[in-house]
Specification:
Four copies of one chain form a homotetramer.
Chain A lengths: L2 H30 L16 H7 L1 H25 L7 H16 L1 H10 L4 H30 L11 H11 L2 H12 L3 H18 L6 H4 L2
Helix pairs in contact in A: 1-3, 1-4, 3-5, 3-9, 4-6, 5-6, 6-8, 6-9, 8-9
Chain lengths: 218, 218, 218, 218
Amino acid sequence: MTDTDTHAHVDEKETGRVEAFSDGVFAIAITLLVLDLKVPRDAELKGSLAAALLRQWPIFLAYLTSFATILVMWVNHHVMFSRIRRVDSPFLFLNGFLLLFVTFVPFPTSLVAEYFRASGPSARTAGLVFSGTYVLIAVAYNLLWRYASTGKHLLDPHVSEERVREITRKYAPGIPLYLIAVVLALFSVTASIALCLAMAVFFAFTGSLPRRPSIENP
Amino acid sequence: MTDTDTHAHVDEKETGRVEAFSDGVFAIAITLLVLDLKVPRDAELKGSLAAALLRQWPIFLAYLTSFATILVMWVNHHVMFSRIRRVDSPFLFLNGFLLLFVTFVPFPTSLVAEYFRASGPSARTAGLVFSGTYVLIAVAYNLLWRYASTGKHLLDPHVSEERVREITRKYAPGIPLYLIAVVLALFSVTASIALCLAMAVFFAFTGSLPRRPSIENP
Amino acid sequence: MTDTDTHAHVDEKETGRVEAFSDGVFAIAITLLVLDLKVPRDAELKGSLAAALLRQWPIFLAYLTSFATILVMWVNHHVMFSRIRRVDSPFLFLNGFLLLFVTFVPFPTSLVAEYFRASGPSARTAGLVFSGTYVLIAVAYNLLWRYASTGKHLLDPHVSEERVREITRKYAPGIPLYLIAVVLALFSVTASIALCLAMAVFFAFTGSLPRRPSIENP
Amino acid sequence: MTDTDTHAHVDEKETGRVEAFSDGVFAIAITLLVLDLKVPRDAELKGSLAAALLRQWPIFLAYLTSFATILVMWVNHHVMFSRIRRVDSPFLFLNGFLLLFVTFVPFPTSLVAEYFRASGPSARTAGLVFSGTYVLIAVAYNLLWRYASTGKHLLDPHVSEERVREITRKYAPGIPLYLIAVVLALFSVTASIALCLAMAVFFAFTGSLPRRPSIENP
């Protein structure tokens, strides 16, 4: 093997291991969400089990929103990594910063589930923590991409400048839109969560770029 | 490397990462089931610990059924992926839709464990949620395969048309059979769970296709 | 690539995915054990926190035993897979049968932790379930190896007949020795757990065979 | 393939599987930390939910410290493995010894969260267990590296003697510094945790060595 081949091999193995670790964290965080779904106990049953489960619908809404958000983040993280050929220490720590908030998601989910129908201020606080977590995730995600793409120092050299700017533009709306969800939470927690769910759907469509090199290098 | 080799390499890496993420989710969901097994507390012991554990047999039955179902789904998911050479965004989200219900399995398992011996309506509700979850999994699984195999656009070109139809036929009974389990739950939760367990065994045998290319291209 | 190369490639990928799934299950089961360690609550503190933690020593002993057993099982599973070149459906299900008991380990661990210092019959039941689980693991492990090695149909062709018999001999003592631990639990739960811990150490040394092909094909 | 190529291939696959298992354990342990974050229940609310969450700040501090420590340990474990070309049985068990303490981290984190604001002796005990766990992790980490690097028998032959000594020097401060954190816990739990967090930041910068072979073999 030539020296360049060796570098490419080492870089690909390194990048692969960071991807695998991140995938593990995404997979575990998404699966732990189910622990936030509580079986109604006998004591809480003021009617049938069916009625008790239906009264819990906000828990299922929060579960679905968090599941969709982590899934879409994973797909986009995966797309981002398909552009990356090397990792360095600051990148590893920025990635860790993103994972910190990803692993945190089950907590605000649980908080919303518990306080969704509580009195005004408590429900508002829960909604603010929920949407605020997503603001932090959007910040961490944009930081990671900006760091990797600046001067293209960690990117696959085949990715064009124009492509990089296009991706940057696609990720940009995350922060302001999640900030709107934070403001919405002051008025209606339901509307705030609905916006977060809508954004997961939005990023599912805009964030998923074509991955085939043929499309990029026509 | 030729351009075609590069594509094949990228596609294989992509597909591999989706498989790895899915495997992670299957592995975590199957292992979290153990958290539904509760150690009987002193207060509940109206006799010996042995008797208390034996009284919990429905919990162990539900655990075994969920374990077997997730394991068989994993084996079949694995077989399905051995036919697939490329992934695209809709495929990623259909796969995510399947994983949503897979990660959800510990909740109905816990629900059945809690309400198995409760009064009629509650036990029935638990049984309906349990078997209903499996209907949704069967729907998601069939959707994923139909999408991947339509026009064979994501499949390995070596898989024959006839083979594709044969696989489609093998997966098809899942939806009607799990619907029967839903109807059964209205009469007997035990019978409904027993049917779900029997179906895991059924798919263990019919779903596991030969994987060696030699067998398909004689 | 020749046809034989393609087969070897497909087989290696398949075997790798089964290893990865199993590794995931082992890794999660070993990490979930920590959830059996309970923080002593204020109510239980009849003295200092230090004293409360020291009174919990059986929980730490059970934790250590289960951790060591799963770790050693993982190392040996890993060694077994280094001999295997192909997987088929019965092998996948025998492997799933082994994983069923591996994921179950946190439950008997929790049971022993709870009832270790209870009255005679309850402690005995807990000890029987704990050591009985290890008997089932040993049975599943031996079944998996016997199936893979019979006629060497799933093994690397470079593994000699003599080597196969030697490995079979090394795994064999597991079942009788864990049965002794079951019998011991009737008299002393401590002695039974101590034997299980000793066996983890025993298999750590005897089960870990050299992995370098050079040693096998001199 | 030549015989040497086969060895290199087998060794790389083996090493890769140990890395993957370890990554799995790190990923799960880091994600399970979120379960230590408890949603304040209605009963505990002597004011608003916001105030209840703010009163819980020590839980978030302990969460952040444990997250940062596991992340940095993972990055360094990853860097260590980039130097390693072979694994043997003692290495597997030393690695298992390290993972034992890594999986244990959620327990002292939970202990500190519960007893941070308790009376003197209980808070002190919690702080001692927390920092003491990190001493054991540092010991296990240094043992693993010393074993692998002694006579360079498991290392990549391209790593120079000087490089090995440099790495050994960089890891060395861990044990004495965490021992200082243990002593600090006798006086102030906050100061002790703050030192642990500072050390995670310290190792983030010093422990992350360049990974590109070009830098080592100029």
